[in-house]
Design a protein that fits this description.
single chain; globular; mainly alpha
Length: 190
Amino acid sequence: MSDRRPKISPVRLVRDLATLDQALYEAVTVTRTPTLDTALRRLSAAADHSKLSFTVAGLLALGDSRSRRAAALGVAAVGVASASANLLGKKLVRRPRPHRAVDSPFPGRHVPMPDSASFPSGHTASAVAFAAAVGPALPGAAVPLGLLACAVGYSRVHTGVHYPGDVIAGALLGTGSAALVLSLAARADV
């Protein structure tokens, strides 16, 4: 018996991941969830232009110096994530948005389709960046902000404007953006 492992073709791997991404997107689009539809549509719209993160940052800025520092770190991370997603990622990858059929079974869940490319999800990148930058400075906020970021990411798939892979890439970009901001801030503090 041989210990040889089959070679993985990068082309086949990407094709399989794209097939899985499409299947997951389609599974969400045909699943009836009327209670979630309105809430997730509103959440997705509230996350436009990082309004949720900036609102939380504004509230944190009213607190003590630790809260103000957390707010500043979060806003800086949103800036890095947003610039990376919108000025680099979307321009380099140029993935088309999901196709929403005219006869969609649940059109009430949709938000307006953005004109920008689909990959990566800028909403997710910014929400995750904010949560991941604020969390270490204010540990009590880490779980609620992390859950909010996850909900924002899912809302983008649920409302029909992103594939799950776009959201995953956005989350990775957001995490990296927060790590960069936290690293630079730590160096400045030394």
